[in-house]
Write a structure and sequence with these properties.
Structural class: mainly alpha
Shape: elongated
Number of helices: 15
Helix content: 55-70%
Number of domains: 4
Largest sheet: 4 strands, antiparallel
Distance between the termini: 137 Å
Number of strands: 4
Length: about 375
Amino acid sequence: MSRPKSVYWIQTKRGPWGPFDWKLLRDWFALGWLTPETLVSEEMGGNWQLASAVERFWVKTKGTADKFQAFESLDLMSEKVPLSPALGARIQSLGWPGDLGRLKNYYWGNKLRETLENLFPDTQRPLFDDPAWPWSGGSPAEAERRADQRRHERLAGPPTSNQNEILQFFLGPHHGITSFREASLKTGQLLNDPQNKERWEAQPASPHQIARLQWASTRLHRPLPTSLTRGEAHELIDEWFVKLPELEEEFPDLEEEWQEEKLRRREEQEEKEMVEMEVSVISEDVDDWREFYNCKRVPKKKVTNVLELIGSRKQGEPINQFMNRFFTELRRQDPTLFSGQSASANKRPTRRGTGCMVMLSAGLLIFILCVLCIFCVLR
């Protein structure tokens, strides 16, 4: 008995259509998109039979249907709207022989469209543009237009830090190249020269390369050489992330894991910068208010320590209330910063130099009054 093949053709009014992997057809039958009466064949011109007679299409159909039903419970926006006329026409133009009414909603119709377009690629086929597209991102055609716009904006944007390093190394700090496009062309020209490439790769490995290799060294339990050039680091990254079959088997998702780690580090750095900015701003406020609490100048490190416990100033919180909280915690952490009795914390601080200005104004007023009195006596 011959072993069943993994692909099948479907009989349509326009002739054989396919080939399709049998597991994909099993999913379509499980979803009810194709009926059991659909004619299928293991050969394009072979013997046609009812799909209901092919056991492998139905053995696990119940489990497959349950899986899809569980996914549909995610309450996606595109599951709340029906198949649009434009999407139905697109699916039919791709050769779909089934009943469009069996496609329950826009989500599954669009999934079918994407699957068919990938199975039957056509460079002349225009992008699908649907005015009824239910996602805020717009239809694929609109998304592609926006992607093109972003690519143009990127090319017109400034060079990357890596491009700047290459340009400054070969051309000096005042290289005069201001766009990503121009930098890409110039760095390509420079590194296409074998001597230039050798000089560049002989430089010490970049911080980014070292960070990536240190992470991979821990993840793979492999030692990292103490000193590496850029070229050596590049080869080692290529070896650990791409080439070694034993690593591919044991760590198949190493590159994806590193991308997630990079994103985590970037978010951590951004959060750190936000905290530093907040500490800087609050430190200036603290310096204005410290005289009202008979407090010495407060280092930024101590400001950070206090904020870690009391949190940031809440939205709408009066500044005097926040400073009460701040200096109360600061006194608890370091009483040596304080001396004497604190002034009323409900008053706003007088900015440095304001007291001198008041005294000078009062003195000037007294002087003017004295002059006026003398003038009156002499008359």
